[in-house]
Amino acid sequence: MSLLREIQQDATSKDVSTSNLLRKTKLLARRLHSKELENWINSELNGYGDEDDVPDYRIISRGMIYGDFSGAFGAGIRNTPIPLMNIFAAMPLDWKKWTEPIKWKVSISECESILKSNPGGNGMLKSPWPADIYNKLDFKVYDNMTCVQAWAFIRESKIEGIIDTVKTRILNFAMDIEEENPDAGEAGLKDEPVPQQVVTNAFNNTFNAPVGNVASGGSNFTQTATMTPIDKQLNINVDMAQFAEELKFLRAKIAPKATESDHYR
């Protein structure tokens, strides 16, 4: 079986890890003399650096922010939504960093490991905030209560989408190259099995093509592809499901305020 056919077979198999598929594609990249493809593969295998831009399919939206709060005499509130208005009040300069979509930079093998290690997560992953950030919420959400932890929920389907996109793009690229030369994967290192301009065009059309709306699989995350006029004026993304949830939460806060004793565990 030719290398191109092996890549196509592995890209459509559930039994082959994406890391192994990438390594096999790296052989093809070297034989095609494609630095662009090899660089992309290295980033997917090793993870993207702090200063690296990430492809659009690796920008994933967060769900609503949740937290645990502690008060005097053992009072506490656990797993409660934290409205964006409270986050903004607590950190007016940094709020967007902790609520906007995440640039997911970890290696593809780590993506697969995360999914395998969360079998009982109900399709959700926690993205915890560091202590020096959630401590800024002390007394900003509930009177006389400190924040003991905060996190954003991320849907597992977003991580699965990254893996699926990598496989699909490799499959499309391999099919495009096969149309030019079915034996391109068996070429010697000094051969040019496919003209460089054709390889570059195939890479750009496959790997630099835009992905559909990254948030199109569910309801509790930001839609980044379409913005309303008010979004453009404010330069923020509106999460309508989160907005509705926060309205419900705020209505409860407008009601007569509960005392700390009402929240005893």
What is the mean predicted local confidence, pLDDT?
Answer: 82
| Poorly predicted parts | 212-238, 256-265
Number of helices: 10
Instruction: Summarize the helix and strand pattern as letters.
Output: HHHEEEHEHEHEHHHH
The secondary structure category is alpha+beta
How many strands? 6
What shape does the CA trace take?
Answer: elongated
Largest sheet: 4 strands, antiparallel
- Fraction of residues in β-strands: 5-15%
- Report Rg: 23 Å
Intertermini distance: 64 Å
Helix content: 40-55%
In the sheet with the most strands, the strands line up as 3-2-6-5
What does this structure look like?
The chain is α+β, with helices and mostly antiparallel strands and 265 residues long. The protein contains 10 helices and 6 strands. The chain has helices at 3-11, 18-31, 35-46, 84-90, 108-116, 131-134, 156-180, 196-207, 229-234, 240-254; strands at residues 59-60, 65-70, 76-81, 102-103, 124-128, 146-155. The strands form 2 sheets. A 4-stranded antiparallel β-sheet has the order 3-2-6-5. Helix 2 runs antiparallel to helix 3 (35-46), helix 5 packs across helix 7 (156-180) and helix 7 (156-180) runs antiparallel to helix 8 (196-207). The longest helix is centred in the middle third of the chain and has 25 residues, at 156-180. It starts with a helix and ends in an 11-residue tail after the last helix. Residues 212-238 and 256-265 have low confidence and may be disordered.
